[in-house]
Design goal:
Helix content: 40-55%
CATH superfamily: Divalent-metal-dependent TIM barrel enzymes
Bound molecules: L-rhamnitol, zinc ion
CATH class: Alpha Beta
Radius of gyration: 22 Å
Order of helices and strands: HHEHEHEHEEHEEHEHEEEHEHHHHH
Strand content: 5-15%
Shape: globular
Largest sheet: 8 strands, parallel
Length: about 425
């Protein structure tokens, strides 16, 4: 089929979909205008299995794990950027990149507590060229001083101090990103600290973590440039019995301060526990949220994001609650068993599709049904919406944004695999 014929079909399908939605009081053009402004922070670490460039020989630790050895992993910062450029080229919209401290550039070894903005200047140049922001994370794992499973909550004051300094240096880098790129950087602290087996004392590590966080966050940075976030977890590999930074710990901590974002990772709760219903609850007491959109499968929390009910529920809550300006959305998964560029594209496109599906809900109608106590009509409408032609709206959006429509994005990624990825040793 010729491109112009395909374009005509996509446009014709959109016109029909637009009318179907208009009949429910939904303006799809307006929904697409909103979608265009929404940002999903792409996680750099999908590109190289959370390896980074600090010490390429060092394995991943901290209770997280990328399994698989699909060929073509990025081995250098140039390769990672090249792969990211490819991924961004098949995703509609403008989206920040989320970096970890181990993705620094330096000719000599730099201790984690000595990282500086200059080590990330190359990333800033690249982000400027691509007109998007950067987010950041201190890397409190994959390091000799985290090998016993503790960092900010470590018993040893010297070890704690090292990680406190690393987190302070990370905030400075985040502030530099925000100033340079004109859009605030979210710097998210996640630590692996916890015990494999049942602890006797659950309190002391939490007291130490609180004191460490207070020290890290002591100097305020203008929210115009920078936001802090903290991420909880229920358990990890090697911290099955106790995690210091639990959900209650960080919810309480962020609620008590009002200047730190709470990060909810979709894979960090009980296997059947979703984060969607937490959004409107925690936003009663915390100013803003960071979401790590991920997909838990059994005990693992980091599968490529698919268009699940849970993903849709998360985005519905963000949109329905009017929380678009209070929720920062990022991705967090690492799959080394498939084409890594495709993994970025699939997950990001799904997150955007779920946002679009939420944006084309007939809000007024559903609110009216609910106000009237007409729970039958509410149920019937919510079920009928599942058959509405949002796919035609999404395809049209991709076409208008100049990115591949439908499965065609895989043609580009397959060609890239052949031309670039398969030639990497
Ligand atoms: C780990 C956390 C954390 C990491 C990244 C690499 O369980 O989810 O966000 O995935 O920092
Ligand atoms: Zn996470």
């Amino acid at each position: 089929m010729s491109k112009s014929l395909r374009d005509q079909q996509v446009t014709a399908a959109y016109q029909i979909a637009k009318e179907r939605y208009a009949a429910l009081g939904v303006d799809t053009d307006a929904a697409l205008r909103t979608l265009q402004t929404l940002a999903i922070s792409l996680h750099c670490w999908q590109g190289d299995d959370v390896g980074g460039f600090e010490d390429p020989g060092r394995g991943l630790s901290g209770g997280i794990m990328a399994t698989g050895n699909y060929p073509g992993k990025a081995r250098t910062v140039a390769e990672l950027r090249q792969d990211l450029d490819k991924a961004y080229s098949v995703i509609p919209g403008t989206h920040p990149l989320n970096l970890h401290a181990i993705y620094l550039e330096s000719n000599t070894k730099v201790e984690r507590n000595a990282i500086l903005p200059e080590h990330f200047a190359g990333w800033v140049d690249w982000a400027k060229t691509n007109h998007h922001g950067l987010d950041f994370n201190p890397t409190c794992f994959s390091h000799p001083l985290s090998d016993d499973g503790f960092t900010l909550a470590h018993q040893d004051a010297g070890v704690r101090r090292f990680w406190i300094e690393h987190c302070i240096a990370s905030r400075q880098i985040g502030a530099y990103f925000g100033r340079e790129l004109g859009t605030p950087c979210v710097t998210n602290i996640w630590i692996p600290d916890g015990y494999k087996d049942t602890p006797f004392d659950r309190k002391s590590p939490r007291e130490r973590l609180k004191a460490s966080l207070d020290a890290i966050l002591a100097d305020p940075i203008s929210p115009q440039f920078h936001r802090d976030a903290v991420e909880s977890k229920l358990f990890g590999i090697g911290s099955e019995s106790y995690v210091v930074g639990s959900h209650e710990f960080y919810l309480g901590y962020t609620a008590s301060r009002n200047d730190v974002l709470l990060c909810l990772d979709a894979g960090h709760f009980h296997p059947t526990e979703g984060i969607a219903d937490k959004i409107s609850s925690v936003l009663m007491v915390v100013p803003e949220l960071l979401l790590h959109v991920s997909r838990g499968v059994r005990w693992d929390s980091d599968h490529v994001v698919t268009l699940t009910d849970e993903l849709q529920a998360i985005m519905q809550e963000v949109v329905r609650g009017g929380f678009i300006n209070r929720v920062h959305i990022g991705l967090d998964y690492f799959d080394a068993s498939i084409n890594r560029v495709a993994a970025w594209a699939i997950g990001t496109r799904n997150a955007l599709r779920a946002l679009l599906m939420a944006l084309v809900e007939p809000r007024d109608l559903l609110c009216q049904f609910e106000q009237d106590g007409n729970h039958t009509a509410r149920l019937a409408m919510l079920e009928e919406l599942k058959g509405m032609p949002f796919g035609a709206v999404w395809d049209y959006h991709c076409q208008e944004q100049g990115v591949p429509v439908g499965f065609a994005f895989m043609d580009e990624i397959s060609a890239y695999e052949k031309a670039v990825l398969s030639r990497r040793g």
